[in-house]
Amino acid sequence: MGRIIDALQIAVDSVGLGPIVKAIIDDPSTFLQHIFNGLSISGIYILIALGITLVFGLTRLVNFAHGQFLVLGGFLTFTFVDKGISFWLAMPLAALAVGAMAGVLDLGVFRRNLDRPINGLIVTLGLVIALQAITVEGWSTEQYKIKSPVSGVWSVDIVGLDDPIRITQERTLLLAISFALVLALFLMLGRTDLGRSMRAVAENRYAASLLGVDVYRAISATFMVGTAMAAMGGSLLGIIFPFTAYFGNSFLIKGIAVAMVGGLGSVEGVLVAGLLLGMIETLGTAYGIHIDMGALDYTFGPLWRDGYAFVLMVIILLWRPQGLFRGVGGGF
Amino acid sequence: MARMGGGPANVPRALQLFEKPLVPFLLFLLPIFFVPQSLSHITIIPDASSRALSLATSAAIYAIVAYGLGMLMRFAGLPSVVHGALWGTGAYTAGIVARDWGFTYWQALPLVIIVPAIMALLVGFMALRTHGIAFIIITIALGDFLVLVGNNDPLGTQADPFTGGPFGLVVSGRPDPVGPWNFNSAEHMYYLALAILFITIGIVYLISKSAFGRRLEAIRDNEDLAKSLGLNAFLYKILIFTLTASIVGVAGQLFLYHTRAIQPSLFNTFSFIQVLLMVVMGGLGVLAGPAVGAWLVTFLPEWLSPMGLKDPNHQLIARGILLMAFMLLAPMGVVGTVKAWYLQLRNIYLRRQGLRPTTVAPEAVGVPTFGTAVVDSTDGAEAVAVAAEATHSVAARHRANIARPTEFGEPLLVAEGVSKSFAAVLALRGVDMSVRKGEILGIIGPNGSGKTTMFNCISGFLPVTEGTVKWRGAEITNWPPDRVARHGLVRTFQQAMLFRSTTVRRSIQIARESLHAIGHRETAQLDFPDNVDGILEFCDLTPVADQPAAMLPYGVIRKLGVALALSTHPYLLMLDEPAAGLNDIESEELGNLLLRARAAGVTLVVVDHDMPFLMPISDRMIVLDAGQKIVEGSPEQIQADQRVIAAYLGERFAKMAADTIQQQQQAGDR
Amino acid sequence: MTALGTRLGALGKFMPNLANFSTPQPAGPPELKVRDVVSSYGPIEALHGVSLDVAPGEAVAVLGANGAGKSTLMRSISGGMGPKSGRVTFCGVDITYRPPNQILRLGMAHVPEGRQILVRQTVEDNLLLGRMIRKDKAKAAEDMESVLETFPVLKEKLRQMAGELSGGQQQMLAIARGLMADPKLLLLDEPSLGLAPALMEDLSQRIQQIRKERGMGIVLVDQNVFMAAELTERAYILQTGNIISEEKSSDLLGNKELLSAYLGSQRA
Predict the structure, then answer these.
(1) Residues B540 and B650 in one domain
(2) Domain range for residue C179?
(3) Is B122 on the interface with A (CB under 8 A)?
(4) Is residue C30 part of a domain?
(5) pLDDT by residue (tens digit) across B48-77?
(6) How many structural domains are present in chain C?
(7) Residues C66/B447, Cβ–Cβ less than 8 Å
(8) In Å, how far is C224's CA from the nearest CA of chain B?
(9) B412 interfacial to chain A (CB closer than 8 Å)
(10) What is the pLDDT of residue B237?
(11) Residue C25: inside a domain, yes or no?
């Protein structure tokens, strides 16, 4: 046992986790604060990654424009709210609009490339550029923020800790809605005929077709559901963080990272990987990873926030390329 | 004057010359590359000269990068986004050594070639283990990570920046003079860029004509088939990955000196998609493609701006839509499409003259790696069918009685206790097998008995769960498939495997050349022709030699598979269901081919479930059922064995069937 | 428009067929007519003009060795692939280029070769998918109960992953699933593959029972001549893409030439 502790000690020290562990022990309430923040950002990553993993499961296509759907959701919601529509109505409206757009794109663009994933990918790359520029056209390159329907902060005292944790209502909303959406998705996939059809098509298109499933309809439905979820993620994001038309790219990569780490096609994988990334990113950014090896003395701080997703992706692709969970029809 | 087969000889001499790659290349490029003064005529910009020159230099530099990317896509089938970051690495290397060490342009040049190459080796080792989508995603991740590193500048500080963060790097001065060339003028910079561009194009051309290029294309078309012929796919991919990195690195240095200032964001995924657009728009697989694409993408906004496309944002929308449109509708790009039209027109002309139009080998058109091949299908199909018919007459000449030896040599291959399980399914249970030199061993068994799994385990395409495989005394269990093939144990595949974008002749050439590929080889001394024509003749393939492999009828493709394997001079050839889907005539011809191969000195193992095909050619047979060996013996013994019949037809039928067969055998009904 | 749709349909399994936007309605008795079907996989022509008939409620076998084209024929009939030429009609409707899900709605179910069970879904989900197209939900639920009576082992393992079932049980699931659509004609492709002989007996009996109960027609494709003899009235013999003869099933067992064709003591 002692040797294990020693080994852990060495690992912790060399990667620079030592100071982090110390900081956690010193100030537990800030740590819990970070946990909460991490959870809420996980919600967004999960929402966007679900779309990516669902679409991949059924079509073996990775849609690079998915990040833009998130952004568009945010922008449309902003405009609706700006015109006086209540957020609670604006969010689903925006999701519907973006979902409908995805349906049209599916018909025109994606269907032709169902069995040529690399072609399809390049097409979606073109789509990203076009959509991003259209978004800038429609709004501008400025930062936007959606007026939040809720405001206020709850101060929660936890037994045994000095400082209370501050929980903002916006983040709570984000958590709650993400949770509700994921739950709804699970129920839909598990209990409804549509969900069963989607799962069947993801596992074996031919067998599904023999059972009477309209394969194209299942694929369209998947696109639209996934897109709508991303759009709602964008709306929720927009009430907390200011966003620009260029935000889509980083969220896309993170969504892809989460989907790949979880196992492309696996819904459970997305949940686990989403939480993982959200937590690692938040904690890593908050505390910083300090490397001290002789000449090299550097702290990986907030600037490196986006880097955690890359590192995770590379690690998983090298260690377990199929992802943590078995996906592609097996996951959901 | 219709000729059988329809090879290039049909085309009139004048057109033949025209169709060699260099001529259309020059036709496309010369007007663009002319003298700078004429640029003001090509572009419709009011203030022509200096702006046009600057744009043209930009276009040339982008063209170099496009060739780098295009090379990777064409020869390896991989669109890699990390090359954007590698391009940036070249630029930054040049900038940093100029700033910190005072290197001049030419002094920095070797570094600019080496540093991106080293980076590419690191990246490549990680990325090239994956395929397809995973590869693209990992290159995007690595590319953007490198950009992030560039932005965050971990090795620098406020006072002493390394990469200079988001504001990037600035360089003053120009490349130092070389002889009469003084690069202070924009014109000279343009010529420098052009020179490097032409060198790059030269490299691409040389590779496309070389064995190295052919091997890469073979690996791209069908990696498993290439490995089964002994090509070390991973190594070749790393080589081209690194070479293209150096090329884009050089372009990076040029870029730095042209624009004088660089930032990391110039090299991220989003920006690099522009280069992808250039490659796609110009056309893959055609020599002029990336250059034409680069020029079009750079100058199109200028030409269109009088029509109201001034806003850079609108230009971006147009570019995105263009990329989508091209991938969906014309994946061959501008040059590729023009080439295809030309070929259609040419065939119409030939038909009018009473000549049979030729089947265009895909390589002549420049099959894009992604997207559909353009082959003149209706005429082509006819030519192919005629040629295939002719193979039967060649085979007929080979129908003489072939001697069957009765003595065999030492065991070449010994498999002991081989078991293989996939998750819960036990596909093979402790199978023992040995093959003696000079014999033909038949392996038979109903569907699902594990025959192909056994093959895959022996040849290295699947790892074994238990057991050993010994080859000529050495243990080869779990060796990678290309290594196994290089040691003289070659297998063919159950599906029709071919190199999609080549002719029959070129495929065999690739297989023959692989004997000289990287990696230690052990080949047998065979009484087998050493040149391509001889091999074609031996395998009844002469009439179809110049036909595209992808359009051949199934039976001929099967023979090609055997021909490819034989071209590598194996000691032992393992064939997986070679007769599947063949009719009687084709099966018999294939059987004869195998007997001739054995007579030339090759030992054979043939797996099939078609008794009528296998029995006449096998010396000895093994029967597999549900992953186990159940019987071993001569073909006659096997045929009458009740257990075998039970495996195929069910127990209740087996007894009756066994009696019937025994009666037939006794009556000499063979 | 239809010609274009036909050409598109001929290109591959899942290409949208412009003529196919509406679900077909039956226009006659559940009779299957296959006329001169030519099918290929890329360059390989697997069927060289096959014709056969199945009267409503009749049980017919298609026999032949491996590679004869049996599965290709089944796929061409049930919509899994589009023939290069020829015509397939069922219930009076031309189904040559219709996708499988539409053909199912006409009343033809296909239990494919290798079962194609959705192994990563539960037994229950497999069955629920099978009954998805039925309009009368109550009747469908009743039907499921009765099918589970016929195959009690499935009832036991209802909540388990289909992949955990043994080969024989998976075969039963595949058949049960096909039955859930209440078909008038059931295509059974190699149901005996990989099954132990005792199981084959069992399966054979159950299929006979189901047929009696529902008055369902069957097209049975198998290598196992014995099973065909037990279950069917008529048999077609298929060899390398051509129907070479049509027999009464009761005559099959004594047919020595058929036997030789399998085991190859001579080329038929």
Answers:
(1) no
(2) 45-80+110-263
(3) no
(4) no
(5) 467 777 888 888 899 999 999 999 988 888
(6) 1
(7) yes
(8) 5
(9) no
(10) 94
(11) no
Pairing of strands B440-444, B603-608: parallel
Kindly report the backbone phi and psi dihedral angles of residue B545, in degrees, each rounded to the nearest multiple of 5, phi listed first. Answer: -50, -40
The residues near B393 (Cβ < 8 Å, ≥ 6 apart) are none
Count of the separate structural domains present in chain B: 3
Is residue A234 included in any domain, yes or no? Answer: yes
Residue C18 within any structural domain of the chain:
no
Which residues fall within 8 angstroms of residue A296, CB to CB, at 6 or more apart? none
Is A119 in Cβ contact with B327 (below 8 Å)?
Answer: yes
Element (H, E) at A264: none
Tokens of B237: 């991919």
Contact call for B649 and C226, based on CB within 8 A: yes
The Cα–Cα gap between B99 and B164 comes to 11
pLDDT digits (tens, 9 = 90+) for B306-319: 666 667 788 888 88
Q: Does A11 map to a domain?
A: no
Taking CA atoms, A176 is separated from A170, A172, A183, A236, A273, in Å, by 10, 6, 10, 11, 19
Helical (H) or strand (E) element with C222: strand C217-222
Tell me the backbone φ, ψ of residue B526, rounded to 5 degrees: -120, 155
How many domains are contained in chain A? 1
Q: How far apart are the first and last CA of chain A?
A: 39
Tell me the residue range of the domain where A203 lies.
17-319
The reply to whether B7 falls in a domain is no
The CATH number covering residue A248 comes to 1.10.3470
Residue B454 included in any domain: no
- Confidence label for B159 from pLDDT (cuts 50, 70 and 90): low
Size of interface A-B (CB pairs under 8 A): 119
Contact C132 A199 (CB under 8 A): no
pLDDT < 70: residue spans in chain A: 1-19, 114-116, 158, 160, 291-297, 327-332
pTM of the model: 0.82
A266 inside domain? yes
Strand-by-strand arrangement of the B620-625 sheet: B489-491, B572-576, B603-608, B440-444, B620-625, B628-633
- The shares of helix, strand and coil residues in chain B, as percent rounded to the nearest 5, are 60, 10, 30
Task: Give whole-number Cα distances, B190 to B52, B66, B193, C149, in Å.
Answer: 11, 17, 5, 83
Q: Three-state DSSP class for C99?
A: coil
pLDDT over threshold 50, residue B595: yes
Question: Which pLDDT score is estimated for C5?
Answer: 39
Q: Is residue C171 part of a domain?
A: yes
Cα–Cα–Cα angle for C98, C99, C105, rounded to 5 degrees: 90
Q: Which residues contact A30 (CB under 8 A, 6 or more apart)?
A: A163
What's the pLDDT band for B369 if we cut at 50, 70, 90?
very low
DSSP assignments along C52-97, one per residue: EEE-TT-EEEEE--TTSSHHHHHHHHHTSS--SEEEEEETTEE-TT
Question: Which of C193, C222, C263 to probe by mutation at the B interface, max B CB count within 10 Å?
Answer: C263
- The verdict on A57 touching C (C-beta cutoff 8 Å) is no
Q: Give me the pLDDT at residue B373, please.
A: 40
Q: Are C161 and C111 in contact (CB under 8 A)?
A: no
Could you give the CA distance from residue A54 to residue A69 in angstroms, rounded to a whole number? 15
- Count CB-CB contacts under 10 A for residue A147: 11
A246 phi and psi angles, rounded to 5 deg = -95, 5
Amino acid at B425: V
Token reading at B34: 């002319």
- Give the residue numbers spanning the domain of B655: 636-670
Q: What is the mean pLDDT of residues C141-164?
A: 86
- Chain B residues with CB under 8 Å of A304 CB are 148, 152
Chain B contact for C44 (CB, 8 A cutoff): yes
Q: Do B49 and B187 sit in the same domain of this protein?
A: yes
Contacts of B613 in chain C (CB under 8 A): 264
Answer yes or no: is A5 within a domain: no
C82 touches chain A (CB under 8 A): no
Q: Average model confidence (pLDDT) for chain C?
A: 79
